Amino acid sequence: MSFPKVNAVIVGAGAGGGIVAKELALAGLSVVLLERGDWARYDEHNDDELQSQRTPALGNPFGPDDRRHRRVFVYPNGSTRIVLPSEGAYSNNAGCIGGGTVSYGAMAWRFMPQDFRLRSTYGEVKDSTLEDWPISYDDLEPFYEKAEYEIGVAGDYTNNPFCGPRKKPFPMPAFPYNKEGRRIVETATRMGLHPFPIPMLRNSVPYNGRPACIHMRSCVGFACPVNAKAGTHNTVLPIALATGNCQLRTGCVAAEIIVDDRGHARGVRYFDSDNRAQEQPADLVMISASATETARLLLNSKSKLFPNGAGNNNDWVGHNLQGHCYVGAFGLIEEEVYEEAGPGATVGISDFNHGNPGLVGGGMLANEFIDLPYRFCDVRPPGEPRWGKAHKDFQRRYYKHVVRLIGPVQEIPNFSARVSVDPAVKDAWGIPVCRLSGTRHPYDLQGGEFLSKKAEAIIKETGATRVWRNGPSLWLSGGQHQAGTCRMGNDPKTSVTNRFGQVHQIDNLFIADGSLHVTNGGFNPVLTIMALAYWVSDYIKTGWKGSKFR
């Protein structure tokens, strides 16, 4: 079945797609937004930590489900395994309206100016695809600001001398430090560092018709019961739907971008909530499905002019997969430093993001989100028993006595870390699945070791009696910070889109998600994904007025 043509069809209602839908609908374009999941309601999942927190043990409450979705993971030795969304190697991203913004920790970092110019700042890195972005921090700054005000960010950069210039303060005051955070702030300040409150996509005060945060400890991995955590599902999407120009269709799994013999995208073929094959024609197509699923959709969209997938004649779609290796340190402390008030993470340190001798980039450090008891079973010093009475005794004795500093390492992109489509394995709709292969760049081990040692030094200085580090590995990145598989660039031979997210050689096909990232920064990337969605939308709206994409 084919529906009447609309101006734009968008695949994915997450951090990027929700913003694009709102921007185009407000500009008067007719929009169809396709989402494979549905609305995620707190009452349906509540505080079941076995299902919700980080890598779920008993299924993924925010989708996709284990029954119909799978991927193929390729180990470094070449062996393969089919993995399900509830397994870590799947590198999962949520399948629901709002995507990961429903259940994320909501850290709202801007990338630093240097993050857009790594190649110019640090030079060539052997066996890497390290490159500058085709846009700068200054280009994106107004759109960072727009995301902070429209979605809603609480923060205070007064004590952060390393951030890029900004024209306006945060729209909401920062959250206060918790007990663990105060201990870290006092220690880090004494050591000559510059701790500051983490910027959060979470209401510290009532904002834009939504209430202030109620500080539930079960925040990360869960939906917010009062809508104080800001995502696209409770901010921009309601505005898009209220215009009457945006139609949201849930339970829709995209199979292919339809590209004609003249090289124009003509719409999207998908399966609806009743598993019926459908087509939605459109003047332009926007993909905002995540760095794994966006690459998969392009690769599965083969045509006469693009036999290897839409926009993939130069074989760059799916390569350069990045995420974040998280490293840091833990310490056991005699006094109780645990507080029930969520989300737990309150203090950040950016002293080590750049300017580290012998390194390219670095990373941010922060105290961690609250680990619920099930998740805390993974917080153990080396050699500590993982089962039996000693394991239980540790759980009881130290659950409220751990200080931690953890952060993401700025990864070095490499061509072999990639998403492809498997030649044999298909999902429940008969669509070839993602095949994940490669490893992190070996250079990432140096950055990870450096950052974890810095965290260890700070934790020791807090007075912790037993300290251990969480070091890096070469394990392939992915998960909710996945990025880089459809990087933007000025040269079609070494990138997938131009600086506006427009796929090279397909003028009416756009991308707005983390797959555009040339590098992924030493921060959680969601605010950059949101800013890019505004940036790409602005270009489309300007071009639309001149009938450029019709």
How large is the count of helical segments?
12
CATH architecture identity: 3-Layer(bba) Sandwich
Question: What is the fold named in CATH at topology level?
Answer: FAD/NAD(P)-binding domain
CATH superfamily: FAD/NAD(P)-binding domain
- Protein structure class: alpha/beta
Rg from Cα:
22 Å
The first-to-last residue Cα distance is 23 Å
Global shape: globular
Low-confidence stretches: none
β-sheet strand percentage: 15-25%
Query: Any idea how many domains?
Result: 1
Average pLDDT, to the nearest integer?
95
Record field, number of beta strands: 17
User: Main β-sheet, in a few words?
Assistant: 7 strands, mixed
Q: Secondary-structure element sequence?
A: EHEHHEEHHHEHEEEEHEEEHHEEEHEEH
CATH class term: Alpha Beta
> Helical amount among residues, as a percent range?
10-25%
Question: Can you put this structure into words, describing what you see?
Answer:
This protein is an alpha/beta fold. The protein has a single domain, classed as FAD/NAD(P)-binding domain. Helix content is 22%, strand content 17%. The protein is built from twelve helices and 17 strands. It has helices at 17-26, 42-45, 49-52, 118-122, 137-152, 179-190, 236-242, 291-299, 373-376, 388-398, 443-461, 526-545; strands spanning 6-11, 31-35, 71-74, 80-83, 196-197, 246-250, 253-259, 265-271, 277-287, 326-332, 347-349, 365-366, 402-408, 418-426, 432-437, 466-470, 509-511. Strands 1, 2, 6, 7, 8, 9 and 17 form a seven-stranded mixed β-sheet that branches. A hairpin with a 5-residue loop joins β7 (253-259) and β8 (265-271). The radius of gyration is 22 Å and the shape is globular. The mean pLDDT is 95.
